[in-house]
């Protein structure tokens, strides 16, 4: 199963996702795409199989992924302090892949109902869903 992890800024959320997915779903082929080189590097260090940076990498990766995961901002143009371009958001939204998005209240976007959840719990839930998707593909 091909998992595309997208993140920006420092790549901390993406790093945590890559680490947990590689531990819990060792058969997953994880491609990390950062909106900047720092995010990409951090996800690669966490164990991504492949890595790239930038708008075109998101567009190309979204075409072949079975699952796309990352912060909810990857589907919102100009999110992550402007790092998500309209083309990136569109590629993720139009992809045939399943999307498993981590709700975060940042960058002028408020997601109701998540205030009491820690990032660790959100990532745990996301990885659980990705694992279910992987098992259904077998």
Sequence-ordered SSE layout with sheet pairings:
Elements: E1 2-7, H1 12-24, E2 29-34, H2 37-45, E3 50-53, H3 55-64, E4 67-71, H4 79-82, H5 86-94, E5 98-102, H6 119-137
Parallel strand pairs: 1-2, 1-4, 2-3, 4-5
Helix pairs in contact: 1-2, 1-6, 3-5
Descriptive report:
With 138 residues, the chain is of the alpha/beta class. It is built from six helices and five strands. The chain has helices at 12-24, 37-45, 55-64, 79-82, 86-94, 119-137; strands spanning 2-7, 29-34, 50-53, 67-71, 98-102. It has a five-stranded parallel beta sheet, sandwiched between helices. α1 (12-24) packs parallel to α2. It is globular, with a radius of gyration of 13 Å.
Shape: globular
How many E strands? 5
Q: Share of helix among residues?
A: 40-55%
Strand content: 15-25%
Largest sheet: 5 strands, parallel
Contiguous low-pLDDT stretches (5 residues minimum) are none
Mean pLDDT: 92
Q: What oligomeric state do the depicted chains represent?
A: single chain
Structural class: alpha/beta
Termini Cα gap: 9 Å
Q: Enumerate the strands of the largest sheet in spatial order, edge to edge or round the barrel.
A: 3-2-1-4-5
* Rg value: 13 Å
Q: Total helix count?
A: 6
Helix and strand sequence: EHEHEHEHHEH
């Amino acid at each position: 199963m091909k998992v595309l992890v997208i993140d920006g800024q420092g790549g901390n959320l993406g790093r945590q996702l890559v680490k947990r997915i590689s531990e819990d779903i060792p058969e997953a082929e994880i491609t990390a795409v950062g909106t900047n080189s720092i995010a990409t590097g951090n996800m690669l260090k966490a164990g991504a199989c492949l890595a790239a940076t930038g708008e075109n990498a998101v567009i190309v990766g979204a075409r072949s992924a079975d699952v796309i995961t990352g912060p909810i901002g990857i589907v919102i143009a100009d999110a992550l302090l402007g790092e998500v371009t309209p083309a990136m958001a569109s590629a993720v939204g139009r992809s045939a892949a399943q999307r498993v998005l981590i709700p975060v209240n940042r960058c002028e976007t408020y997601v109701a109902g998540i205030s009491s959840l820690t990032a660790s719990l959100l990532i745990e839930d996301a990885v659980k869903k990705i694992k279910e998707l992987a098992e259904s593909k077998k």
